[in-house]
Design a protein that fits this description.
This protein is an all-alpha fold. It contains 4 helices and no strands. The chain is globular, with a radius of gyration of 16 Å. Bound molecules: iron/sulfur cluster (SF4). It is found in: Cytoplasm.
Amino acid sequence: MTTTLFTSCDTAFEELSWRADGLCAQTDPDAFFPSQGESARDAKRICAGCGVRQRCLEYAIAKDERFGIWGGLSGRERRRISGGDRSPGGAATPR
Ligand code: SF4
């Protein structure tokens, strides 16, 4: 039973280990979770130069992260490229 617990923890740690290399780890985390109406431009600019951007984006899409800037994209932008946006005009809207 203990082995299973450690294996799960190890897997979770490995799954998130890339985050230590993210540029956001060195900046204000609030910039990546702007309030409604606030600009996400600064966070997106930081993401553009981040070495783990692709991995971050893939993680956020796989985990269906709804909020915040991940991999340089907002939640709505991520849903749009992953096909999960069911809003009018979204990628999953029947044409
Ligand atoms: S891509 Fe952006 S949110 Fe993701 S780790 Fe890099 S700086 Fe952070």
